[in-house]
Amino acid sequence: MTYLFFTDLDGTLLDYDTHSYKQALEGITMLREKSYQLVFVSSKTFPEIKVLHEELGMVSPFIFENGGGVCWPDGVIEYLGGDVSELRRRKNILEAAFREPVWFITDMDIGEIARRTGLTRELAKLAQQRSASLPFILPSGRPFDTDELPRLNSELLQKGLAVTKGDRFFHFMPADVDKGKAVIRLIEYYRRGHNGEICTVGIGDSENDIAMLREVDIPVVVKKRDGSVIETGIENIRVTEGIGPRGFSEAVKMIIVP
């Protein structure tokens, strides 16, 4: 039996504020020593994840833009749905569902993105290079209750659209695209090479990770920086004490250390 790990990046493998993976290196090293694959599953763009992938010397595939695409080990990019131009044309539908204006990341200047995310200007430019989904904020700045999401998505689904929520942004995408569907694609790929004998693990911290966590054998939620934990509705889910990358390493240890 081998393990296949899927992990979110922002707020999980990467520190929410500093974007550092230093405290995740313990977990990453443990996985490498066991030859267990680690797959990044993020709302980040392809070029953003590519930079991190190369920096860490990763060779596994990765999922970008909340399931909008997969980059395979040979460098081939497979798009699983979503077109930014079409999503922009349907902005009016999104604003009608929210009952207020929205502000897409593609309409922000680089300085604004850097300020809101804590990214360098170089990485902020990469964050703006969307291909399958559109992050956005509510300029009104009003408090948003995640209990609103079911109503929003009920309306958007009639148009084949959906919204999910990350830590900093909402994400606008086609209804048939999410992290879970992309994870299923990767699980099938790995199971073909291991005669189906794989135990899958998912690690995440936000609402947009729930679709991924539902598709794995062992889902693990990492606590947010304020100590809160997302409500997933998933039975027997595990929760770390650690936050961010420290929580990621803790999640790895709780699975593979007897």
What is the arithmetic mean of pLDDT?
95
Shape: globular
Note the total helix count.
10
Q: How many strand units?
A: 12
How does CATH name the architecture of the largest domain? 3-Layer(aba) Sandwich
- When the domains are counted, the total is 2
Order of helices and strands: EHEHEEEHHEHHEHEEHEHEEH
Q: Can you give a write-up of this model?
A:
The chain is of the alpha/beta class and 258 residues long. The protein folds into two domains: 2-80 and 178-256, Rossmann fold; 84-174, Threonyl-tRNA Synthetase, Chain A, domain 2 (2-Layer Sandwich), CATH 3.30.980. It has ten helices and twelve strands. The chain has helices spanning 25-34, 46-55, 84-89, 91-98, 110-117, 121-127, 149-157, 179-193, 210-214, 244-256, and strands spanning 2-7, 37-41, 62-64, 69-71, 77-79, 103-104, 134-137, 161-165, 170-174, 198-204, 218-223, 238-243. An eight-stranded mixed β-sheet has the order 5-4-3-2-1-10-11-12, sandwiched between helices. α2 links the parallel β2 and β3. It starts with a strand and ends with a helix.
Identify the notable features of this structure and list them briefly.
2 domains, 21% strand, 12 strands, four-stranded antiparallel sheet, alpha/beta, globular, 258 residues, eight-stranded mixed sheet, Threonyl-tRNA Synthetase, Chain A, domain 2, 10 helices, Rossmann fold
